[in-house]
Amino acid sequence: MRSFKIFCYNCYMKEIKKALFINFGGIGDEILFLPTLESFKNKFPNCHITLALEPRSKSIKDLSPIIDEILAIDIKSSKKYFQLLKLIFEARKGKFDIIISSGGNKFIAILLFLTGINLRYGFNTGRLSQVLLTKAVPLIKNRYAAKMYHELVKPITLDEAQNPSIRVPESIKEHNSIVIHPGVSKMSVSKNMVKTYSPQKWVELILKLLEKGKKIYLAGGPDDKDYIEAICSQIKENTPNFINYYGKTKNIMDLAQLIASKEVLICCDSAPMHIGIAVNTKVLAIFGPTDENKLIPENENIIAITNNNCTCRPCLWDKRTSTCEKLGCLDINTEEFLRYL
């Protein structure tokens, strides 16, 4: 009986033509998920890949040719359960050969089972996942997230996880150039997840970099308007080598191309940080309440700027869902950045 099951399983694997992946989160989470999709695509180059994600992250499709189709599921809305029913309906209608989900919730196994898809891969979250999933893979949280996600396809591909990669048009990096992206997502702000410097501290850092002869490009998206304005109000108009690039990147690929064309990206723990990693630009990223070991790879070109004297960090997600009022973890001297430039 066991050999018959293995035979049937292998037959299914050879016939995979349509795959549904589920990965809810922000655009940074989707970038971290790219190596998982890439390994799967390398194994099944003719497979049509659909990615179910939150509407706020649908621009990931602009960064990767691997994703054939997006299925937007707004699990943060007041109609969350209706949206999950929509996911089940679309999964059944789509006639997928395999479904793979990154969710760590124990009820994910039920969701995948209800889709009726023959091959169901997810994380091992207990007995329920072991019974309802075709393969319940180890959930190892205390590691770089891209590697954690990649465990989902490792039994299929046998590949080792690589760092995220975004293909942008080749360009020569501008000498002495730095992109500064100071903001975080509006959702982080609304949930009181403070992960970045105050505008005053960013101004202090920018002025020090200008004194060192660096050319600064200040970038941001629609969520960062107030932040950018607060910074620019404290820097003299027409300051040499300071370019306010806000509003000039019209989409996420524009931002990726900007970051790829400069020598260094300075930011906080945010989606632009993951973009910088994926386009092989040197990244200096502020890490206050979040854990750099889970969010950046071991790479001498990717540097976490932290307050090592703050003994209570990291705390966000592991110990709390919003940042504390003291924010001692963000009391980082701007001189720390100059050591790496």
Care to describe what's here?
With 341 residues, this protein is an alpha/beta fold. It folds into two domains: 156 residues, Glycogen Phosphorylase B (Rossmann fold, 3-Layer(aba) Sandwich), CATH 3.40.50; 165 residues, 3-Layer(aba) Sandwich (Rossmann fold). The chain is 35% helix and 17% strand. It contains 14 helices and twelve strands. It has a six-stranded parallel sheet with strand order 3-2-1-4-5-6, with helices on both faces. Helix 2 packs parallel to helix 12 and helix 9 crosses helix 10. The chain starts with a helix and ends with a helix. The N terminus is likely disordered.
Calculate the terminal CA-CA distance, rounded to whole Å.
Answer: 62 Å
| Stretches with pLDDT under 50, minimum 5 residues | 1-9
Beta-strand content: 15-25%
Count all strands and give the number: 12
Task: Summarize model confidence as the mean pLDDT.
Answer: 91
The CATH superfamily of the largest domain turns out to be: Glycogen Phosphorylase B
Rg over CA atoms? 21 Å
Helix and strand succession? HEHEEHEHEHEHHEHHEHEHEHEHEH
The percent of residues in helical segments reads 25-40%
CATH topology heading of the largest domain: Rossmann fold
Helix and strand composition category? alpha/beta
Spatial shape: globular
Summed up:
With 341 residues, the protein is α/β, with parallel strands linked by helices.
